[in-house]
Amino acid sequence: MPTAIITGGTDGIGRALAGTYLERGHEVVIVGTNPEKGKTFEAYGDRARFLQADLSLVTENLRVVQWLTERYPAVDVLILGARFHRSTRVETPDGFESNFALFYLSRYLLGHGLAGLLGRAERAVVLNFGGSGRTGPVRWDDLQLRHDYPGTGALGHGGALCDLLGVHFTEVHPGIPYVMNHPGVVATSFAGEYDTATATFVDRLRTSGKPVAQAVAQILPFLDAPPAPLTAVLEGVRVPTDTPAFDPADAARLHQLTEELLTQRAYPSVIFR
Ligand SMILES: NC(=O)c1ccc[n+]([C@@H]2O[C@H](COP(=O)([O-])OP(=O)(O)OC[C@H]3O[C@@H](n4cnc5c(N)ncnc54)[C@H](OP(=O)(O)O)[C@@H]3O)[C@@H](O)[C@H]2O)c1
User: Which residues contact 256 (CB under 8 A, 6 or more apart)?
Assistant: First the structure.
């Protein structure tokens, strides 16, 4: 039975994609923090499994990789969708800015950590909700956003890092198609902690965004038949990846910086070459 792993599968677009793959007969592992939301797919019995994990922590990502590696011979679909907006800058216990940790580093750790299982699937695909060239620029001298924290714009910065992550991943694992997706504004839960002004704005987005079903319909064709090792999609339209946002030298630079950060924080065994 094909297997799909979906972070952020308890809500929004991730939850809808989980339902899609369950309907197709996949075994689906939904990763999130909220066990109540994890019960959404109980009707599918053992084919839907909820794995509780705080993916903003390095050790939790490593535990998820180990848990999956011990249970599954292969992973067919990996969807990296967990995110949590914060109006105010917060650091995780690992000392990483929270968006950097959840929106970028978790996706780095899960993608590389599960590459072996993805490589064993007949037709694997990774979906990362990145910037698709729309966000950035990368703050090379301030990856942890210590200065002029941009509020919800921190996710945009993470999106730019994810674009570069996709470039590096496909260089290292050319046989595993990687799809980058910016879905536009979608009416989801917009999980996060917001100041009053932002909360009012986000409340509007929760209703005015496009329906989740439309966002799923726009990305599914690219997951079913990825047209290239690295594909970037913006609201259902393929966009070029030969632009500065996908610069291979920047991708290598980010990979090296990420390795250094992990080593500094005593996670040298997590280095992926
Ligand atoms: N919605 C939009 O307009 C929009 C626009 C551009 C890009 N995107 C991207 O699309 C993807 C899906 O977004 P969405 O709006 O559908 O999501 P969402 O409704 O905001 O849900 C966020 C998901 O992330 C999970 N999550 C939050 N913190 C977590 C943590 N520490 N550890 C593990 N899981 C955590 C939540 O699970 P729990 O509640 O179980 O913790 C939830 O399933 C994201 O990558 C987002 O950046 C969305």
Answer: none
Q: Among all chains, which residue has been given the structure tokens 């996060």?
A: 192
Supply the pTM of this predicted model: 0.97
Percent over 70 (pLDDT), the chain: 98
Q: What is the CATH number of domain 3-270?
A: 3.40.50.720
CB 131 near ligand 1, within 6 Å: no
Which residues make Cβ contacts (< 8 Å) with residue 80, sequence separation at least 6? 7, 8, 106, 107, 110, 111, 126, 127, 128, 129, 162
Residue whose tokens read 């180990």: 66
Task: Label the pairing between strands 125-128 and 27-32.
Answer: unpaired
Given a cut of 80, whether residue 127 has pLDDT beyond it is yes
- Return all residues near 120 (Cβ < 8 A) that are at least 6 apart: 73, 74, 75
Retrieve residue 60's tokens.
Answer: 């939790």
Ligand 1 within 6 A of 12 CB? yes
Return the percent helix, strand and coil in the chain, to nearest 5.
45, 15, 35
Q: Collapse the DSSP code of 154 into the 3-class scheme (helix H, G, I; strand E, B; otherwise coil) and give the result.
A: helix
What's the rounded mean pLDDT across residues 22-26? 98
Q: What are the residue boundaries of the structural domains of the chain, listed by start? A: 3-270
For 201-222, what is each residue's pLDDT tens digit? 999 999 999 999 999 999 999 9
Q: What is the per-residue pLDDT across 29-58, written as a single tens digit (0 to 9) for each?
A: 999 999 999 999 999 999 999 999 999 999
How many angstroms does the Cα of residue 36 sit away from the middle of ligand 1?
Answer: 16
Residue whose CA lies nearest to ligand 1 atom number 36:
8
